[in-house]
Design a protein that fits this description.
- The protein contains nine helices and 13 strands.
- By secondary structure, the chain is an alpha/beta fold.
- Strands 3, 4, 5, 6, 7 and 13 form a six-stranded mixed sheet that branches.
- Helix 1 packs across helix 3, helix 2 (18-25) packs across helix 3 and helix 5 (100-116) crosses helix 9 (280-291).
Length: 309
């Protein structure tokens, strides 16, 4: 039976009136009659007795109703629950980020989100440096604020929320640390903190390139899996690391100098999520993040100071 045939049979079994059934289904009376006749021809038996005064179920119709109704009710409940889950904002949303400045931005977006949607909550999680999309595919989080190229099938991204100039975090003892700025070709004279082997190729090439624009090899040193680990390696003189310019409040390490990379494209941060997991909660948080996109680390969160975080 087609879905519309099931609906026609169950509606007529409830109403026992062709006109009222047609009104409920928003079709013509003739269409209801046509559907019922088609079912009866297929079964080879009448499902309703019709007279000029009444419509009643036949024994075969009663049996079909008893067998069909429970399954139909389960399907309808499943549809209602799925629809509610897709449209409902209240509940807990898992959001991941990488880096201190990104965490502060996610907190600001979370403040706006929970203020606009009572009953909604955000659980925030710091992720390894290069594993934003992997965390989504592993269902560790539902959304990620990433400054890496978006890679992998089945991912959806929101608009650019933050655009940050690239800086090179460089040990103060390095010969180039006295410069005011660097170029991408200068990276040939610097050892970069490496990325783990599991890092997607496009992400690794964006943050830890293998060659300069003029073709020279860039050396890679020890690898780092977290932002703090990378900064600790830089402070220990193990190499340099490309970061986004989040403002002076995140550049206070006594052993590190941060130099602009003049010819490097800026880092662009946006939220990403899996298409198959998209729902009203994810869309609402993305809207809150868009509203918060004018904030930076120098702008305190509502009722709080960033320095206390």
């Amino acid at each position: 039976m087609e879905r519309i045939e099931i609906e026609a049979f169950l509606t007529l079994a409830d109403e026992l009136h062709f006109g009222k059934s047609a009104d409920r289904m928003r079709v013509s009376t003739g269409r209801v009659s046509q559907l019922i006749h088609g079912i009866e021809r297929r079964f080879g038996a009448p499902l309703f007795e019709r007279t000029s005064r009444r419509v009643v179920l036949t024994p075969v119709g009663k049996q079909l109703l008893d067998d069909l109704r429970p399954g139909h009710d389960l399907i309808q409940e499943a549809i209602r629950r799925a629809t509610a889950a897709g449209r409902c904002v209240p509940g807990t949303l898992e959001v991941g980020f990488v880096g201190t400045g990104a965490g502060t931005f996610v907190l600001e977006a979370a403040d706006r989100f929970t203020a606009a949607h009572p009953g909604a909550d955000v659980r925030i999680r710091e992720l390894p440096l290069f594993e934003g999309s992997a965390a989504l595919h592993a269902d560790l989080v539902e959304m990620v604020l990433t400054f890496h190229p978006v890679n992998g099938p089945g991912l959806r991204s929101g608009p650019v929320l933050r655009t940050l100039p690239r800086l090179l975090a460089l040990p103060k003892a390095h010969a180039l640390a006295a410069r005011d700025s660097l170029s991408l070709n200068d990276l040939a004279d610097i050892t970069l903190i490496g990325a783990p082997e599991s890092t997607p190729k496009a992400v690794a090439e964006d943050r830890v390139p293998n060659r300069t624009p003029d073709g020279r090899v860039i050396r890679h040193g020890k690898s780092a899996s977290t932002f703090q680990e990378a900064i600790s390696l830089v402070g220990g003189g193990e190499g340099a690391f490309v970061v986004g310019d989040e403002g002076s409040c995140y550049r206070s390490h006594p052993r590190i100098t941060y130099l602009p990379i003049e010819d490097a494209p800026p880092l662009q941060g946006r939220l990403i999520w899996r298409e198959s997991r998209e729902n009203a909660r994810i869309r609402a948080f993305n809207e809150a993040a868009i509203a918060a996109s004018g904030s930076d680390c120098r702008g305190p969160r509502s009722g709080d100071s960033v320095g206390a975080r």
